[in-house]
Amino acid sequence: MSHEIKFVSAAEAAREAAIVKLTGAAIQPAKVRVDKTGGTGMEIEWRDGHKSSWSFAWLRLACPCATCNEEREAEGREPGEAKPKPKAVLPMFEAPARPREVTPVGKYALRFTWNDGHEAGLYSWDYLRNVCDEQRKPQ
């Protein structure tokens, strides 16, 4: 049996401690609405009565795949926080994040295929509820 040991900085440990980990009915969706046509984002009504909503831009920036997560951690960014833009003479146009496809993964997650071609992240119900802004402890 192998065990994974993860070393974290004090700042990262503080960020992780600031998130309330929810379980049970709190991480079970009652209703999921993905507005792919309108392009507004996703809303979830949870079985415990809480409602969460995210824009597609936020969801893309919060991709939970290993590559995106490692990049965010290395840069000290939170899920959903954009990378700082380099100063340029003329800003480059970047198409807004939109899913081309949204696929359920079992009874525990959604997979988005984004318009930039990225599709590695599995957005589990647990992850989505626990990154909901209203669940963060006041700092």
From TrEMBL:
Bias (Basic and acidic residues) ranges: 71-84
Which Pfam families did the record assign?
GBBH-like_N
Q: Which key words tag this protein in UniProt?
A: Iron, Metal-binding
> Does this entry carry the keyword Cell membrane?
no
Q: Where is this region: Disordered?
A: 71-95
Every copy of the Gamma-butyrobetaine hydroxylase-like N-terminal domain together lies at 38-129
Q: Which domain of life is it from?
A: Bacteria
Please name the PANTHER family in this protein's record.
Answer: OS02G0197800 PROTEIN (PTHR35303)
Q: Under what name is this protein listed?
A: DUF971 domain-containing protein
Q: What is the lineage of its organism?
A: Bacteria, Pseudomonadati, Acidobacteriota, Terriglobia, Terriglobales
